[in-house]
Amino acid sequence: MRITILGAAAGGGFPQWNCNCRNCAGVRSGAVRARPRTQSSIFVRDDQAADGVLFNASPDILEQIRANPALQPNRRVRDSAIAGVVLMDGQIDHATGLFMLRERGSPLPLWCTDPVEQDLTQGNPILRVLGHYCGVQRERIVPDGTPFTIPGAPGLAFRAFALASKAAPYSPHRDAPVPGDNIGMLITDRTSGRSAFYAPGLGEITPPLFDVMSGADAVFVDGTFWTDDEMIALGLSKKTARDIGHLPQSGAGGMIEWLDQMPANARRFLIHINNTNPILDEDSPQRAELARHRIEVCEDGVTLEI
Ligand code: MLT
Ligand code: MN
Ligand code: ZN
Question: Separation of 78 CA from ligand 2 center, angstroms?
Fold first, then answer.
């Protein structure tokens, strides 16, 4: 399968509009060697098909489509390679790009869990607003690992898993999490049998979830924060990474420790990277530490063949 990284940053993107942290100021001035990144989305196709599945509709979707010509195959006067959209949660960075797809001539095929549908019809009623434009053809994701397919992308199979992470602040479940607020997805190419696990928001790894991750040829997992207190240390928030549903990379029980236990031939990618994360600086010791653990950092516009 082919996975195109449309946006590798977390909410806010990199640099973030109002931020002058070391990374954001440094990438603007050139003092830090780092690449800008747009907000969290990937596009997945099997090895042959032109059409594929958009995971998350980022606020940056229009820029992402312009930057990645494969998403506009130009077969007819109105066209797109996006056969359907899958949402990993109902957060701003993953859902507000749906508004930008409103010019479709038919309802947008949209796969999401029941809790995410509630977030997007109650707390942030994007789906109700879209009803005044193209509307959505909503398909239910049950996050229990049952395999399913998406009609416009028949070469791929999907299994969704409920994750411990965090629903958006406007979610009816923000402080009372329910399974399906956030999901991880195992994506398999039905011809090659190769698979990838995608989880841009992942607050806790349980042994059953780690079994799923370990069975994949590649994982694309939560790269939001390097340390649990990253935002507190910078004076930008009172909350830890874990408080807002993101497992930090460093430290005991952190993402690096988990990824070290993956099978040797699996590729490990971090995605959904917050602009404060020192791994964005290509010359940082944290980036060098990732390299020692054979962990790669996703960049926008890169297509990976899995
Ligand atoms: C998160 O996953 O915590 C988000 O990126 C928050 C946001 O979109 O503002
Ligand atoms: Mn996010
Ligand atoms: Zn910043």
Answer: 30
Q: For 64, phi and psi rounded to 5 degrees?
A: -65, -40
Q: Residue 213 is which amino acid?
A: M
pTM of the predicted model as reported, rounded to 2 decimal places: 0.98
Instruction: Give pLDDT tens digits for 266-290.
Output: 999 999 999 999 999 999 999 999 9
Alpha helices in 148-262 (DSSP H): 207-214, 230-233, 255-260
Q: Which numbered ligand comes closest to the C-alpha of 239?
A: 1
Rounded to a whole number, what is the largest CA-CA distance in the chain? 54
Mean of all residue pLDDT scores within the chain: 98
* Atom nearest to 94 CA in ligand 1: 8
- CATH superfamily, with its number, for domain 2-305: Ribonuclease Z/Hydroxyacylglutathione hydrolase-like (3.60.15.10)
- Within 6 A (CB) of ligand 1 lie 10-11, 91-93, 201, 244
